[in-house]
Amino acid sequence: MTHPTRRRYRESPSDNVDENAPNGEVELPDAVEKGVRCEIKDVYYTPVEGKLGEYHWVDEKPLDGQSTPAWKTKKERETYAIISFNKRKDSDSDWSTSYVQINNSKVHTALEKILEGYPNLTQYELKIFQPPYLPFFHRWTEFTQYIEHESDEDTWHYLNLLRNMLLPRLDDTFTRWEEVEGTGHVAFNNLDLAFDPGDFAIRVCNGFRSASVFRRGSFGCTCDGRRFFDAYVDVVDWDGRRCGLLSQTWRVWEYRGLRALTALSVSPLRAHPDKEAIETALISRGRVFEKLRGQFFMAYTDEHEERVNERTVIDARAYHKFSGNSFPRFAKLSEIGRLTWAQSMNRYSSSYDGDVDAPMEIDLTPLTDGQCLLCVPTVKCFNIESKKWDNLDLTKFHEIPWSERAFDSLVLDSEEKDLLLALVDREEFKNSKPFDDFISGKGQGMIMLLTGPPGVGKTLTAESVAEHLRRPLYKVGAGDLGISASSVERCLDVALKLCSHWQAVLLIDEADVFMEARTANNLQRNELVSVFLRLLEYYCGIMILTTNRMRSIDTAFESRIDITLTYNSLTEADRKQVWKNFLRNFDSKDMDIDEAAIDDLAKWAFNGRQIKSAIKTARILAAKKKQPLNAKHLNVVLNLRSKALGLMDGGTAHGGNEATMNGVKPA
């Protein structure tokens, strides 16, 4: 940078009170004005003799083993406009500046204007500066131009004194910066010069490209000696109520030699030749982020991770409330790129500093292009199948491919289907808006009990109800809830709250352990049943319970269950329908199974779950042979399964419901 010639500018009002003198310094009497001498005073760090760990600053370079009492010179020292505090590592080292203190109030006033908006500078830091003096480096043009236009003669002299002090100290910094700007390559030790506070920074991490506002950077070192450069940045995120600026740390690990700025994991956006295209792409993604503020039930597909149509609830508020990750503390969006000292002192606040369950307004103010540019690349969500909280790529969400024939697959009598449809098609379930909170109260939900042997369609019924209503299906098993009353109450309470909040259909599979009749000699089980009954009493929503042991259920559940559907073992006609339901999902070119083959397959006395598993295994066999799926592939799998079941059942092979086959395919 060039050094402009002197010009004039009007004087600004100043404040002569130094509220932040360094530790150990003594305030001057009001009669003595600080910083009036237009000179630089050098002082030197000296240990206090006989007092380990204590030190003071003296006016002359001390000889080894000698020191000057600090109190004799403090008052006079404060009259200097600038004090340079010097230290050395040991007696053989040269003296170097530890920090400089600016005492002149007119310089303070000027610096408040010159460094206005510079991130993280407090009032104290406007008077104390440490090498390498990056605020002056980044604002050197503004600093020199301010001096050019300064109209007050005294102020000009004070500022010029500061400039002349900084010039030799910044000379090496400017040289290194010119090398970075001129070549587009940077050494690790010069990374702090590659970023300007308030500029946009780009990071590539885990396949995501993100933008941020750079605030400051610092070098550090791990315990094992590995060095790094940390960039402290601001991004835009959503907490379930509002958008705000979230502080993040982006790290660059030490490397050897020079690297292109654009090849770094964190780089300034201005260094990229295609920065306009990058901005356009990130703003476009930010618009998607903007649309996903709120609660949504969507499908997630990531072919690289082999995840296809995973049912997912996008809900940042629930994520922070239930996942164990606390609510973030945001700065206001209006502070992007312009964080003054006053804002930095209390910049962060949470939308949920009060009761997180209390109703509150959701701020969906449209985002600007600049705000969209800074939006994080992921959304906080809950995987319905795995019941895990996650942050997922927001560009991979899409509408759920709903099944329009959900109830057609159920092997139920027509009267039972009609009753089931009538119950779930009630206005409070069918027409309520997704994710609206239910009105609290007693007995406003619907509880269904499905009983019967395994593999006859109980789970499929729950899936069909959720599919028909286009709601999430939240599955819970005994293994998810635990065995102690406290564990069941805690886990089930979370499940009930989530399902009520999302209007999900709650399926509690194999609920026998929580519903078994209470007895006088099993207090632990009695407590489990009592907890379960109490939680059911106040649940508002659709709950489906499945059991294989209807006769052992406690009689208290009778008044709480709205409908009980009993499933019998599958008949041959039922099995034929199950085979058809599964096989109709195949394209004709991928399957070679006719009606006669299905009739033959239906003679195997397997339940629905076993049929589904057999098709899955046979499909792998067909793919290995590069053939369409046919009856031969299926019969190989069914024969093996029949033999295995025969061994498990002491020589009798069956599908868990009716006829025995002794491991031989029926005629």
TrEMBL record:
CDD domains for the chain: RecA-like_protease
Region (Disordered): 1-30
Residue ranges constituting the AAA+ ATPase domain according to the UniProt record: 444-571
Family matches, as InterPro entries: AAA+_ATPase, ATPase_AAA_core, DUF7025, P-loop_NTPase
Cell cycle among keywords: no
Keyword Hydrolase: yes
GO molecular function, one term: ATP hydrolysis activity
Any single Pfam family the record assigns to this protein: AAA
UniProt entry keywords in alphabetical sequence: Hydrolase
Protein name according to UniProt: P-loop containing nucleoside triphosphate hydrolase protein
